Amino acid sequence: MESASPVSVIGRLVDELSWAGSSIRRLRNGGRGDENVLTAEVMLLLSLLPRTAFLGAVILAAHGAEKTRALLATDLEQATVQMFPDEITIPRTGVRVQPDAAIWTDSAAVLIEAKGTRTAAQFQKTQLAREYLALMTDSRKHKLLLVIMASTPPVRIQSAGRIDLFEGVTIGLEELCSAAALTASDVEHLVQAIPETVCWITWQEIRSIVAEAAATYPCIDASLAGTLRRLTQGVTDAIDWHSGAEAVR
After folding, report:
1. Which one, of 88, 193, 90, lies nearest residue 143 by Cα?
2. Domain boundaries, the chain
3. Is residue 43 within 8 Å of residue 36, measured between CB atoms?
4. Angle formed at CA 235 by CA 98 and CA 14, multiple of 5 degrees
5. Model's pTM, two decimal places?
6. pLDDT digit string (tens) for 113-151?
């Protein structure tokens, strides 16, 4: 009988890395620069910090999908934040998608695709299209695809070079829709919905937002203030370390 997937962020990360095979040797330096390790470290801390003030601030500061982000940012305290969620199968196809992270509420689904801090990192040719279509099959009312990158768009797409993020989402989308037995009208609707569904933010923006939120968060209890300081320092240290900079304490 297949065992259940681990619940904790560390458990999910270890499970994900277990598929690396011999390339696991690249993590002997603590996984510095590895996008999975960085994403797990930052998302774990953002899930533990006061959600509205920190994770909500990150979502509000992203670019694109303004109305959707505004609806989601204030509904995070009871949300489920999950690293490497179970694969999503696009209906009527054999295409499986596993985002780097996800945020689930009763009314919203957020898929997160994160690249590391290397500016040369690129997306697989149809990666964004697959994640977008998988997201849009969710039955929840509100949907958001959040892309975290090292630098501002354009983005690097395999075999397509540097292009606009929204354009990158359309690469291979029509073929995927055809495989899913969707109509031309469905494809048109999906393309039109990209600007209100897809958004992006950089790691350095996340670092700045978290540091600013920590500096202004009201807290009169010394012990709680220390906890918040350590958690937020963990976010900035992780981004600095994976970016090649020395963490400053």
Report:
1. 193
2. 9-242
3. no
4. 40
5. 0.91
6. 999 998 778 999 999 999 999 999 999 999 999 999 999
